[in-house]
Amino acid sequence: MSGLQTFFAMGGYAGYVWPAYAVFFVVLIIDTIAPRLRRRRVLRELRSRLARQDARQSRVRQDRASSQPITTPPSL
Amino acid sequence: MANWIPLWLHKLGSPPTFYRFAGTLRPWAMALALLLGAIALYGGLVLAPADYQQGEAYRIIFIHVPSAWMSMFIYGVMGVAAFIALVWRIKLAEVVAMESAPIGAAFTFITLVTGSLWGKPMWGTWWTWDARLTSELVLLFLYLGVIGLYHAFEDRRQGARAAAFLAIIGIINVPIVHFSVNWWNTLHQGSTINLFGQSKISWDMLWPLLCMMLATKFYYVASLFRRVRTDLLALEGGKDWVRKIAESEAGQ
Predict the structure, then answer these.
(1) For labeling, which of A60, B46, B201, B206 is most exposed (least CB within 10 Å)?
(2) What is the pTM of this model?
(3) 3-state secondary structure of B118
């Protein structure tokens, strides 16, 4: 057996050693990716909320400019 | 004592300051974690000799033991942060406590699975209701309980307070996990690494273990900071500093 084959064979314990290392890496990779996706989602929601707020404010300003009396706030 | 230290800590506790501070440190912590982790893997898998009793199977130790240490260390951090959150109502402490729980749960899960994969060839069983194994499983359930309770409330801060309470009660389990091998007759071996005095392990095997321990510590810092930053954005959604970040970081 070559050196590399001996290494991967782990003295006959390959079936235990490598899955253990795989679990370690897979769990930590998931732990790294999940917050990344969440951050993207939070920022997207923030931006759409800010855009809605801005749109509402400019609508209120337009209504005032056209001097129509506002009895009920629009679209609330 | 110079009063700039409490002043600095007070400022660091404010969400926008901590957001920037964590953003600066996080990439460095992650880089150190990857570097030290790679060195530890090389030392543990390639350089370290085989064990005279367990052969190559013992190499699981280089991820099993650091993960087990992290499962307890993170619980300690979570408990302290939860205590600060309950007593002083500091928002940052709440976030640190709640965002530590998933990372701690991940390390506890790794500990249990790698331990099981190590137990099968060495003890002849995947699982046994031994004091060490059972208390570690209880630790996983405590983490999951904290996560679940946090998300069970409509109001995030109310959920954080309830979950912080559970986290503090659960601290009692940490010394039980640690001392279980001394207090009860267990199948699990006693501690090999001794902080004060001689460790029962050769240096060739010890240094990769300590190196991996440092790597997992830095990984925790990096992961925690990323999570805390996101949480602060969500919690402080209406504030000006968050608006600036949301507008500047397009698509990121």
Answers:
(1) B46
(2) 0.88
(3) helix
Question: How many domains, in total, are found in chain A?
Answer: 1
- Give the Cα separation of B208 and B62 in Å (integer): 7
d(CA B214, CA B59) in angstroms, rounded, equals: 18
Residue among B111, B68, B73, B14 nearest B221 (CA): B73
Of B103, B117, B234, the CB nearest to A16: B117
CB contact under 8 A, B230 and A11: no
Burial class, B93, CB count within 10 angstroms (exposed 0-12 / middle 13-18 / buried 19+): buried
Contact list in B for residue A43 (CB cut-off 8 A) is 233, 245-246, 249, 252
Chain A: closest CA distance from residue B249 (Å): 8
pLDDT of residue B156 exceeding 90: no
Yes or no: say if B78 and B49 are a contact pair by the CB < 8 Å rule. Answer: no
- The encoded tokens of residue B141 equal 């359930």
Q: Domain coordinates of chain B in residue numbers?
A: 73-233
Domain that holds residue A38: 22-67
Q: Which residues contact B232 (CB under 8 A, 6 or more apart)?
A: B15, B18, B19, B92, B95, B242
R_g of chain A, CA atoms, integer Å: 29
Helix (H, G, I), strand (E, B) or coil at B51: strand
